[in-house]
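On clarity, I found the account of how folds are encoded harder to follow than it need be. For illustration, here is how one protein appears when written out as sequence plus structure tokens.
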Amino acid sequence: MSNYRKLANQNAQSARDPQGLARFEVRGRDADRDLIRTLARRLAGDGPEAERLRALVDRAITEEPPKRGGILAALRRSPLVGADLDLDRPREEGRTVDL
């Protein structure tokens, strides 16, 4: 293939693919073809679903145990931290029931 043709193919490829996306080839089972394509399509997005899916797949592939303290960190990021809420209620003994 001539250099001109190679350059034309590269330019056409870069015009088709949005910035930040790469095209690559993987080998796998034929039965997993649709799964891999769907996964790649969803990971190509920039939304929260793509981030959640990326984290889930990363956790499933890496063999590291999940980090501890995630709930505590989320509670510390809460907008109610330092709001000085008064959560005291009057203590009542209950009602009398006539059986």
About this structure: The two ends are 96 Å apart (CA to CA). The chain has four helices and no strands. The helical segments are 3-16, 33-43, 48-61, 70-76.
